[in-house]
């Protein structure tokens, strides 16, 4: 009987040992699954962050592309503004056909991205609207220059019209500068 009792105790202890071993194995399996899940989650987060980074880089590159050439446009718009003042020389009888052609070419380049000045078209409504008004007024000013040449400046409004045109050109330059600043702010925001 004693042997049998010892044998039963041995079996119970052995059963407890096996039970604990299985519990340990199950716990390790759960930890391994948890680690795999954590690694999967970390991998997905890293993938998302890389995707966001790539999108931000693309957005910055688009903005930089828009910014390229803007300084040149501002410079040439400023040249138009300054050359307008030279148009007043028409009142002294000094013809400036080359200057008129030069301004025609620059305005065409600013509006249509053509010509030999390598100007880009700014995709800004305010700038395009001001440039359109300026270009339309330029056509009127050229007609007034023809009137000065045929009738004399005393019978025209050339001085006043050139002042008005100067202010229009000034507003166009400011609109181009504002566009450039908007892009710079977007780039700084994205960074």
The succession of helices and strands, N to C, reads HHHHH
This entry's quaternary arrangement is single chain
Structural class: mainly alpha
Strand content: under 5%
Number of strands: 0
Taken from the alpha-carbon principal axes, the silhouette is rod-shaped
Computed CA radius of gyration, to the nearest angstrom: 39 Å
Distance between the termini: 84 Å
- The total of helices stands at 5
The percent range for helix content is over 70%
Mean of pLDDT: 83
Low-pLDDT runs of 5+ residues are: none
Largest sheet features: none
Describe the structure.
It is built from 5 helices and no strands. It has helices spanning 2-67, 70-86, 97-112, 125-151, 158-190. Helix 1 (2-67) packs antiparallel against helix 5 (158-190), helix 2 (70-86) packs antiparallel against helix 3 and helix 2 packs antiparallel against helix 5 (158-190). The longest helix is centred in the first third of the chain and has 66 residues, at 2-67.
